[in-house]
Amino acid sequence: MAALAHRIVSAAVVAATMSPVDTFYPAALNDTSYITNSSIGTYGGTYSAPANKLSGGSPYGVYDYCTMPHPRVSEYTMPSDPHAKLVHLEYMQRHQRRTMYNLAPGGENQPFDCSTFEGFLYGASTGAADAIPMYADVYTDPANPFVDGLPYVNTTCFFPQLTTGGLLDGIQHGRDLWALYGAKLGIIPRSINEHVWLRSTSSPLTQQSAGGVTHGIWPSHSGAVPLRQQSGGVDTVNSGYPCDARSSTLASIQATDAFQAHLDVTADLRAALGDILGATDSDWQSTFDHFSDNFQARLCNGYQLPCKFTDPSKCVSAAQAEEVFRAGDWEWQHYWRNNALAQQYIQLTEGLFIGEIIGRLQAATTSKQQYAYAHTFIHDNDLGPILGAFGISQMRWPAMGSNIAIEIWESKGSYYARVLYCGHVMRTIHGDLDWMPVNTLVNILEPYVPTDIVAQCNA
Ligand SMILES: *[C@@H]1O[C@H](CO)[C@@H](O)[C@H](O)[C@H]1NC(C)=O
Ligand SMILES: *[C@@H]1O[C@H](CO)[C@@H](O)[C@H](O)[C@H]1NC(C)=O
Ligand SMILES: *[C@@H]1O[C@H](CO)[C@@H](O)[C@H](O)[C@H]1NC(C)=O
């Protein structure tokens, strides 16, 4: 409980001195002192949410790892041009909050409960055969001989599934999108029709988010809905196509002096956490990805920070968790903004998808655009490079439900773009992406689209 109180105080102190949007842009993020300076705390961010309940974020609009803010009627500002009419909404989001990918190798001291979540997977055949919708009901047989050994985790979850809290957040996300972009601005149609484009990755997490968000948008819809996915092996999101150069570029980025410096300043922290979680191998020690993933999954779903499986008196402290989160933010800024290979890395990771987005934006300025509203459900590893391509001023880890709304407006025959990141006008090295000719935005993104991705990946 002391840990929780500490987090809330730390958020409140910063919130008093900066506006919600400021919590997205820590000025010192390029420097490793951002990681080690414990007085920064969470930089006004929130890292806790209740189990199995909706999480609203408080105050609304701050960087909230568990439930990032999204566009809502109450905070939304209309463009100053009174003649402007919204003609296309290109929306993309990370899935909502979830269980972890990375269980503590030494054993998880708290069981993770997913018994209120039904993860569906079943098949039916158009016109030929219907089927009973089936969901996975995960259980453990106590007679299973593997159950006694570490790192067995007594759980009803299939990791990294969405949680009930994440589903509820997704439904609210959808309701708010409908109120703004449907009821008020009229770009989301009343029912799912040929002007709507919905796509996810092949990961169940993104499909589970799509089901919740679309239910929030169209609550009276009944029946199944096609969710587009590119075929396995060539998917342009979620690193879905083979690319050796992508991994070798990442290796080069992780070999920089700056990256090594961030490992040096965190050597004691990593050793202490390695001991508590039994996490001493390089998967856990070479970046903060796994520690961060494990801690946020607990804190964002009503659990405590972990303790050592074999010694309940040795627990991860709130101060250690905050340093992990700051180190994670530093890494994201390093990967996608602050290294010499960032442009190449973005091209290799996300360039094809960025090209698809540009295509839809350009089509929206002609009569050729079929889709008024495109919504893609993706991952942090997709949002990061896209934010990097926009030139976001500072990049904290794109957290649960992070979203980018690219709005295309028409006014007196000209087309303008505006870009919101988690409901706020995005701050970038090109200035605020508030109102600009569509071509100006396209020119910002275009250098990130590879001319020959196959050759570049095999180079
Ligand atoms: C630590 O961060 C605080 C702001 O939270 C700042 O005032 C102080 O200068 C920083 N200290 C160092 C050594 O960077
Ligand atoms: C797992 O947890 C459940 C619920 O707490 C408990 O009833 C069950 O006995 C546990 N199973 C094992 C194998 O520890
Ligand atoms: C951090 O680094 C990026 C990329 O090198 C740069 O664009 C940005 O201005 C830097 N931010 C600060 C506050 O120095």
Automatic annotation (TrEMBL):
Cross-referenced Gene3D superfamilies: Phosphoglycerate mutase-like (3.40.50.1240)
Q: Which Pfam families match?
A: His_Phos_2 (PF00328)
Q: Which UniProt keywords apply?
A: Signal
Question: Signal sequence span per UniProt?
Answer: 1-23
Question: Which domain of life, per UniProt?
Answer: Eukaryota
Q: Which SUPFAM superfamilies match?
A: Phosphoglycerate mutase-like (SSF53254)
What family does this belong to? Answer: Belongs to the histidine acid phosphatase family.
Q: What is this protein called?
A: Histidine acid phosphatase
